[in-house]
Amino acid sequence: MCKKKYYITTAIAYTSRKPHIGNSYEVVMTDALARYKRLQGYDVFFLTGTDEHGQKIEEYAKNAGVTPKEYVDKVSGEIKDICRILNISYNHFIRTTDDYHEKAVQKIFRKLYEQGDIYKGSYEGMYCTPCESFWTEAQLVDGKCPDCGREVKKAEEEAYFLKLSKYQKQLEDYIENNPDFIYPEQRKKEMVNNFIKPGLQDLCVSRTSFKWGIPVDFDEGHIVYVWIDALSNYITALGYSPDGSGENYKKYWPADVHVIGKDILRFHTIYWPIMLMALGEPIPKQVFAHPWLLFGTDKMSKSRGNVIYADDLVNLIGVDAVRYYLLSEMPYTSDGSITYETVFERYNSDLANTLGNLVNRTVAMSNKYFDGEIKAPTAYEAVDDELKAAALKAVSELDRLLSEYRMSDALDSVMALARRSNKYIDETAPWVLAKDESTKERLGTVLYNLLECIRYIAVLISPFMPETAEKIFEQINTDVKNYESLDNFGGLEVGGKVGAAVPLFSRLDSKKLLDDIALAAAKAQQAEKAAVNTAKAEEKPEISIDDFAKVELRVAKVKACEPVKKAKKLLKLTLDDGTGERTVASGIAQYYKPEDLIGHNVILVANLKPAKLCSVESCGMILAADSGNSVKVIFADDMEVGSTVR
Predict the structure, then answer these.
(1) Helices 357-370 & 466-476, crossing angle to 10 degrees?
(2) Would the pLDDT of 540 be above 70?
(3) ∠ CA 265-269-271 to the nearest 5 degrees?
(4) Radius of gyration of the chain (CA)
(5) Which of 147, 302, 405, 603 is least surrounded by Cβ atoms within 10 Å, i.e. has the fewest?
(6) Across the strands, what pairs with 161?
(7) CA atoms of 112 and 109, how far apart (whole Å)
């Protein structure tokens, strides 16, 4: 029988810097949904990845002293590592620097241009570099970007535009005829009332003021702007191309849901569907916008010093505990919160006390009273019905809540079964039943019901905490893990033996952990302060203009260059400074090869006292910038040899 298809995506992460724990919520949530659909028997394709182009990346790379590609390779690798650490089960990880994606985007741009949906013009407005967005003066809030609140600068450039206005009526009709396209409802109202009804302005879709992007292949100097580039990933990852798409595209598109943050809803529910309409392709079935995860009540940022990283938290409490906190703490529509205190509190109350305690004492009692054997449930009492009803209710509630993306409520429906099972232990008092031989049959029934509820819990939490689910299956020694086995209570095999009772979650010493974290933070602050003080101490004293005038700076051409034997860091340069040739030894061998320098003009300190370095007489030095991570020679190729620099 052909499985039903399910295509789910995250927004691709921007490769500006390593993601913090707040950025990780989305991929964990999407992973849980993908795993749940697989559990139900769907043929799931789960896509995530990285968005790697744009002016901001170009600037970050420049400041780091590396190429943009080197920069995004590093950050994309960090993001992929976070996915691995958080046990993310994606089917494909796309990078917008992937060759197949770049080629498909160029074809998409060309097709939209050739059919008249993209046209050439010029743009003048206020530009926000972090958001990579143009704004009119009227759209600014207190003179700043309405999205992020940062400074904007006036910009004017030639650009291509996508005709959003042409498709406004078609988009309005689609939203009206597909009421669940934008989810939840309040987000739809924001988009319709604040952005669509006032009238759509055509969208700038190319840039000329920077180079790090996908070139427009029919107009040199233009690069494809972020929205067509990044948004197209959802179809290029499946093999889409305007001149013929692959099997995965035909199989999985349209997407069942794009899971995104609330801050990029406009791009996914206005720009993206209009792009698809213009291409003649189906629209995604749904876009779900989740809230943010805050540090306490503040948005996380490195500048505020309130950033928690997923890998650090996993090292403290384990991957499933981190996944559990992220998914259980985030409300449906309002922003969630994370602090170390609340993480440790939730760990102890829910995972150690409720779930861990239930599994541990049930397995321990089975080993103690029946040598681990799972007895048949033959001694029924009325209280058993309530427990069975709670198990069956957990299944239906989880399905209902996940269909509405209520992750926190869905997890709580499973934990409610764990709490009800713990209450059942108190109601039936197995330790009392064990004292009387006449109630041993009843004891076997009680323990069977508890073990079966634990099996239900393990199946139901497997999308959220996959490693924990496997540990539970191992302890109760069952291979009955499929979703269909939850249709009727009693799927656990009788006659087998449970495994050893091993604590799933040991209680945390919250005070000690918080003290350790505070101490580590204090040490980090001291180290940072010491580094700043060292930097200040190394600042050169002020000099007068007369002092500076003593330095003779002259443009010189590198005529020859070779490594210095027995000196790994030195290169020997032969320079022509307009008055003759001279030799200079420079410690740049780890950053440059001789062929990188020969033929270029450099700036020479011409009146430096000669010095002998590794048998080379160095008559001067060349200027270079040292960022701490790399050294860049200052070239002066557009200046005449012998020119004075002053």
Answers:
(1) 10
(2) no
(3) 105
(4) 32
(5) 302
(6) 119, 204
(7) 5
